[in-house]
């Protein structure tokens, strides 16, 4: 250890004492303002290690995008012909010139190319360095930033590269991304549980909607009845599975899931211990009978209740342990989506779940556009391989109160879209409540189903007809507060109000689109089951199908408003709207639209 410290000290001293390498002509590559609620809390130790992820410009991403649209378009002759992992790699690998330019730059700073870790497609490079050396490498200065909630990150607001590298490097992180990956159903949206568990358990034995659904407490049987999966029995469990993600130390507790199933899906009671757990970057997994997190339990209990006996995988990604600015460990990178999706891209897609639910996100403006674009592009790579990605739309309508200001230095009032919900290559899930269903809103905890228009991603062509119709109906309302030409979300919705969750062996009640997201993902996992049983490929990237044909299988939500930003927000309307998307699913109608109904 003493030798390691001496070596680090030598590196830092050489970095601090020597000027920029004169062989490189540096220019600013990216600048991003500090997001609201963040402030400088100090300087990181020069030995503090950061794991850098360097994105290289793919050679043929436009062609990958073309393939993705063709295999996802139900009117195209290639529909359902998803790409292999190798085909994706071939399309997004960088050119030899790009790789050589990167290696020459790093070598010029004394970094041995053999220390670089390339992924299989060689479009991402990882290396771990002390802050002082990174500051020289990127001609920048890092600080410790602290959020009002206590979160700390080591970040900068601007970084540079040699001009010759600007076209070869898409992003380097952690630098300017302040993403926190908030769980969308955490304790902030927990509400008092004033319901009778025995009453709900008894209702689960009924078949009538007005009896099985107590909208003071959402259960598996109610969801099955509402969305018409109650009579479906999975047929392809050996060839179909579903997954969900955990971040920020969230763990899905199997003993709590067993209690939930005991009450609401007794025949599935043993499936909780069949859960496959995957740890990525030291992500936490369930190794005990207590603990975990409400978010992790919510996802597991919702999914197990709906898809049994379909296999379920929980992906737990690390990246945000307790921060200590004086340690020499590569902690607190907090780039969870990038870490997760790069790991997924390295796996054989044949062994991956074909549906994955994620109930996390943050304001889009907390990350630079380059980072959001590259993460979104990685989601596209998974979609091209036949994997459907579902993300929750957020829990604060068009933006959390007292937070709706731009991050461009002008602090103008604006609605705040969320990321990754704004990525066009994911299917974004909004929330409803009651029956007939309306856009979800709960005055007790401030919950309002998230909605918005991206400021980073242009509206894709498959959204044009639906979104333009809605924008025309609202006219100049909210003019200047949102980007009417941006990718709009949510795409669809599901119940998101007062879900029953077992946590630490006690009953809780939770609101949020993190309730709706695993429910929708479960329904489409059952759709995949029906497809696979008929010898057909899984759905894959859903959105072109949804906007072209699939919307016919959804129940329109026409009432309710996505409030936020200290005032009214987008309202539901006939057809697609930015408060509820196309509404809520009818499983049997989805099978009919796909031509595989009974």
Automatic annotation (TrEMBL):
EC number: 3.4.14.10
Residues at the active site: 295 (charge relay system), 299 (charge relay system), 514 (charge relay system)
Signal sequence coordinates: 1-17
Localization: Secreted, Extracellular space
GO biological process: proteolysis
Residues the record lists as binding Ca(2+): 556-557, 575, 577
Residue intervals passing through the bilayer: none
One GO molecular-function entry: tripeptidyl-peptidase activity
Annotated coiled-coil segments of the chain: none
UniProt catalytic activity: Release of an N-terminal tripeptide from a polypeptide
CC per GO annotation: extracellular region
Major localization class: secreted
Cofactor: Ca(2+)
Keywords noted in UniProt: Calcium, Glycoprotein, Hydrolase, Metal-binding, Protease, Secreted, Serine protease, Signal, Virulence, Zymogen
PANTHER family linked to this entry: PEPTIDASE S53 DOMAIN-CONTAINING PROTEIN (PTHR14218:SF39), PROTEASE S8 TRIPEPTIDYL PEPTIDASE I CLN2 (PTHR14218)
Name of the protein in its database record: tripeptidyl-peptidase II
């Amino acid at each position: 250890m003493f030798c390691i410290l001496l070596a680090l000290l030598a590196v830092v001293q050489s970095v601090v004492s020597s000027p920029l390498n004169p062989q490189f002509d540096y220019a600013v590559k990216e600048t991003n303002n500090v997001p609201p609620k963040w402030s400088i809390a100090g300087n990181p130790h020069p030995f503090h290690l950061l794991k850098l992820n360097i994105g290289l410009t793919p050679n043929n991403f436009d062609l990958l995008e073309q393939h993705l649209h063709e295999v996802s378009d139900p009117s195209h002759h290639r529909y359902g012909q998803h790409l292999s992992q190798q085909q994706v790699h071939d399309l997004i690998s960088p050119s030899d010139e790009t790789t050589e330019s990167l290696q020459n730059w790093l070598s010029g700073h004394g970094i041995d190319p053999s220390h670089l870790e390339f992924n299989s497609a060689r479009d991402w490079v990882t290396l771990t360095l002390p802050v002082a050396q990174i500051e020289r490498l990127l001609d920048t200065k890092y600080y410790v930033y602290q959020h009002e909630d206590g979160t700390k990150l080591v970040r900068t607001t601007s970084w540079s590269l040699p001009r010759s590298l600007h076209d070869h490097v898409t992003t380097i992180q952690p630098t300017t991304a302040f993403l926190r990956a908030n769980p969308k159903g955490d304790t902030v949206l927990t509400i008092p549980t004033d319901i009778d568990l025995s009453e709900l358990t008894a209702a689960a034995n009924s078949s009538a909607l007005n009896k099985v659904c107590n909208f003071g407490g959402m259960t598996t049987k109610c969801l099955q009845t509402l969305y018409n999966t109650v009579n479906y029995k999975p047929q392809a469990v050996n060839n179909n599975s579903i997954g969900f993600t955990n971040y920020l130390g969230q763990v899905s507790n199997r003993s709590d899931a067993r209690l939930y199933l005991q009450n609401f899906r007794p025949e599935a009671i043993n499936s909780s211990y069949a859960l496959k757990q995957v740890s990525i970057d030291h992500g936490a997994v369930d190794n005990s009978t207590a603990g975990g997190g409400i978010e992790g339990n919510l996802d597991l209990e919702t999914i197990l209740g709906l898809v049994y006996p379909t296999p379920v995988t929980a992906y737990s990604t690390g990246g945000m342990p307790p921060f200590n600015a004086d340690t020499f460990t590569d902690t607190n990178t907090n780039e969870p989506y990038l870490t997760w999706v790069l790991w997924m891209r390295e796996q054989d897609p044949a062994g991956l779940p074909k549906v994955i639910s994620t109930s996390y996100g943050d304001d889009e403006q907390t990350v630079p556009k380059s980072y959001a674009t590259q993460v979104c592009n990685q989601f596209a790579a998974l979609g091209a391989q036949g994997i459907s990605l579902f993300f929750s739309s957020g829990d604060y309508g068009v933006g959390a109160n007292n937070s709706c200001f731009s991050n461009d230095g002008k602090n103008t009032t604006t609605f705040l879209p969320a990321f990754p919900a704004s990525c066009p290559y994911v299917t974004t899930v909004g929330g409803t409540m009651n029956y007939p269903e309306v856009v979800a809103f709960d005055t007790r905890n401030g919950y309002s189903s998230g909605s918005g228009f991206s400021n980073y991603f242009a509206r894709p062509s498959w959204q044009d007809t639906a979104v333009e119709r809605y924008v025309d109906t609202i006219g100049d309302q909210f003019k200047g507060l949102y980007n009417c030409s941006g990718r709009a979300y949510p795409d669809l919705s599901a119940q998101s109000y007062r879900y029953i969750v077992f946590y630490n062996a006690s009953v809780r009640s939770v609101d949020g689109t993190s309730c709706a997201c695993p429910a929708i993902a479960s329904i489409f996992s059952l759709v995949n089951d029906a497809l696979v049983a008929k010898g057909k490929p899984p759905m894959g990237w859903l959105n072109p199908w949804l906007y072209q044909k699939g919307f016919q299988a959804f129940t329109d939500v026409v009432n309710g408003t996505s409030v936020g930003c200290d005032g009214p927000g987008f309202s539901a309307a006939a057809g697609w709207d930015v408060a509820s998307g196309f509404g809520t699913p009818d499983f049997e109608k989805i099978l009919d639209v796909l031509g595989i109904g009974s």
